[in-house]
Amino acid sequence: MVLTFAAATGIYFAHFSDNRPIVSVERVAPAPTDRVLIVSGRTRSELEADLRTAVSGTVATAVAREGARIKADQVLIELDAEPAQLNVREAQAALDSAVVSRQRAQEDFDRARALGTAISQVERTRAAEALAAAKLEVQRLSAALERAKIALSDYRIVAPFSGTLLDRLVEPGEFTQAGSVVLRIADLSHLYAEIEVDEDYSASLQAGQKALIRLAGRDDTLPGRVSLIEPEVNTTTGAVPVRIAFDQIPIAPTGLTAIVNVVTASSEAALTVPRTALVARAGPAVFKLRDGKAVLTPIKIVDWPADRVEVKEGLRAGDLIILNPEKITDGEAVKTTSQSAGKGP
Questions:
Q1: Angle in degrees, 0-180, between the axes of helices 121-153 and 82-115, rounded to the nearest 10
Q2: Which of 41, 47, 157, 342 is positioned for an S-S bond with 187, CB 3.0–4.6 A?
């Protein structure tokens, strides 16, 4: 009985003295992998404009509301232009008077020329000078009338292109200062998504790369492609503006949030590991499980903003890696609880 008790006690002590940490592992396996860059942006239009008033004045008429379709050269807003209209009338009257004076000067010149030597050379010269002065006055007042008409046109805001009225910021009867934005318009048939890509990843982008776009409020994804990569980095954000063209332009407003997935590279058989398996304190490294022990193994990776990273060197298919490396030390004996196959990022 004593021996049996001693043996049982030894088993009991051995069972409860196993302090090896418990780890989860994954078997590395090659799998098809797409390297995808996920960036949020907003919809924009190639034709988009803020329309401003050239002069100060009171809004007399505003014919269009938000969402209305507008045509190029359509009058959208008119300001009270009574002073400018008065200037046009005064300029026209002055020009009409000058034209009459020119006609009289022409008649006097023609008469003096017809009389020839019957009148003095001084009189003929005076008639010629009067005609020249009358012609110059007509030219001057014609220019003044043109300037008055141009000034009058500043009291009207017309659509520079056909499109949709996005916003109207004034109402009839309101006073607006010169230079104020009163309308925002865009041609929604030229819609695209604009994203900003961190400069660290911008080198992986090329025009023509495929993209999937999801717009806020919609469940479907829309195919597109990288159409333009700006040649200049935004020094404030450290990002590069990138334009994503829709394969088929959707019916959507500008400024809508767009989540864009750009496929920058693909592989038929890549080795990947979860980012959480990386040992941060040792640089790019993981713990491999070998003979029941954690072996710190340096690796080379393609650092990418994704849950999984592609391993270029340091691992082979079939290796077991530890998924929860926190507090594990190199060479430490461990116990495993589960095992799963590798997946693509």
A1: 160
A2: 47
